[in-house]
Design brief:
The chain has 4 helices and 4 strands, in the order βαββαβαα. The chain is an alpha+beta fold. The chain has 2 domains: 52 residues, no CATH class; 97 residues, no CATH class. The chain has a 4-stranded antiparallel β-sheet.
Amino acid sequence: MTQELDGTPGGALEDLESGPVDYLVVELPTERATGDVAFPLLVDLVERGIIRVLDLVVIRKEDDGSVTGLELAQLGDGSTELDVFEGARSGLLDDDDLAEAANAVETGMTAVVLVYENTWAAPFATALRRNGAQLVASGRIPVQALLASLDAIES
């Protein structure tokens, strides 16, 4: 008999249908801290079932280096596309994670810390786990590095 994650009968960890989880730390320009052009695209990804937002936290790195958490309503004029994610907290991020994220943020800047599941990959990842496969390496190529490589090839 298999067990649910909480110990009750019914399933096993490898049966949990979930996709890979990624995070982003996005520093916002101070004059347009609402991200009004990009954030509707994030909402669209969620609505189409491509990703699932697990955590969305807004932080500000103060001039003295301290980190302050902000409410979504404190961005820009107080109304953003991110309002739909108000309270999106899975418990995965703790204060240490936010402090580490803040290390990537310039002093005096505001940033959005986003943790999301790639739900598009969940059936594939689940099938791999059920068949005993395991991920042994993963990575991401920054767009800037990819463009630089393509420019070098064309030169």
